[in-house]
């Protein structure tokens, strides 16, 4: 049996350690972060899931477009409320949530800006994922998960609701959103119908 090249084996160990470290840091940050505000979905609150109102600064975001059409920043998106959804093609829960997000985004048209953040993923499977679920809004590509670290994302999916300026996080939903749940949050935060 052929032995793997020592450098390739070392690279795999380093990559696995980096992923494990990132997940550990995300988990520790989430466990240590205070949850402020009222939870809309009280049945999920005991599990740490659901919606929480917030009022805190949104970290800057500038990442390449998943489709390869330049860099997308929150500054460029400002002017309308921003829904920032962290996802990955390997995330089972994201597969359940994405059709709801896509449906609501299509129905709202230009009233709200949606942006996906493809985290710790590969470009080709992520593009296939978006095509399969008919995602009508752009996503940025974050293969190292650095934006997820900045936003203290504990696991995928997580959706942040930002002010029209893109500078303030008004709410956070941990776990999968349904179309009706998303509409309720958008109505509560932005008055959308």
Give a verbal description of the structure.
By secondary structure, the protein is of the alpha/beta class. The chain has 2 domains: about 1-30; about 35-190, Glutaredoxin, CATH 3.40.30. It is about 40% helix and about 20% strand. The chain has helices at about 5-30, 40-45, 75, 90-110, 125-130, 145-150, 180-190; strands spanning about 50-55, 60-65, 70-75, 80-85, 115-120, 140, 160, 170-175. The protein has a 6-stranded mixed β-sheet with strand order 1-8-7-4-5-6. A hairpin with a 6-residue loop joins strand 2 and strand 3. It is globular, with a radius of gyration of 17 Å. Mean pLDDT is about 85; it is low at about 15-45.
Describe the structure in brief.
A six-stranded mixed β-sheet has the order 1-8-7-4-5-6. Strands 2-3 form a two-stranded antiparallel ribbon. Strand 7 (158-162) and strand 8 form a beta hairpin. It contains seven helices and eight strands, in the order H-H-E-E-E-H-E-H-E-H-E-H-E-E-H.
**CATH level 4 superfamily of the largest domain:** Glutaredoxin
Tertiary shape:
globular
The class by helix and strand makeup works out as alpha/beta
Major beta sheet, strand line-up? 1-8-7-4-5-6
Quickly count the helices.
7
Characterize the main sheet: 6 strands, mixed
What share of residues are in beta strands?
Answer: 15-25%
Per CATH, the class of the largest domain reads Alpha Beta
Low-confidence stretches: 13-47
CATH topology of the largest domain: Glutaredoxin
Helicity, as a percent range? 40-55%
Reported CATH architecture of the largest domain: 3-Layer(aba) Sandwich
Radius of gyration: 17 Å
Order of helices and strands: HHEEEHEHEHEHEEH
Count the strands?
A: 8
What is the averaged pLDDT score? 84
């Amino acid at each position: 049996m052929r032995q793997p090249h020592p450098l390739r084996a070392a690279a795999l160990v380093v990559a696995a350690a980096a992923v494990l470290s990132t997940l550990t840091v995300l988990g520790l940050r989430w466990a240590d972060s205070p949850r402020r505000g009222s939870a809309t979905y009280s049945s999920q609150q005991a599990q740490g899931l659901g919606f929480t109102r917030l009022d805190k600064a949104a970290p800057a975001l500038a990442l390449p477009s998943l489709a390869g059409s330049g860099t997308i920043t929150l500054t460029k998106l400002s002017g309308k409320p921003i829904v920032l959804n962290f996802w990955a093609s390997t995330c089972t829960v994201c597969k359940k949530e994405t059709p709801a997000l896509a449906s609501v985004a299509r129905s709202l048209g230009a009233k709200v800006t949606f942006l996906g953040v493809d985290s710790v993923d590969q470009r080709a499977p992520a593009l296939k994922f978006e095509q399969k679920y008919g995602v009508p809004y752009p996503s940025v590509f974050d293969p190292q998960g650095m934006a997820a670290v900045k936003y203290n994302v504990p696991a995928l999916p997580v959706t942040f609701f930002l002010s029209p300026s893109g500078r303030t996080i008004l709410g956070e939903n941990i776990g999968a959103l349904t179309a009706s749940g998303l509409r309720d949050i958008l109505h509560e935060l932005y008055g959308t119908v």
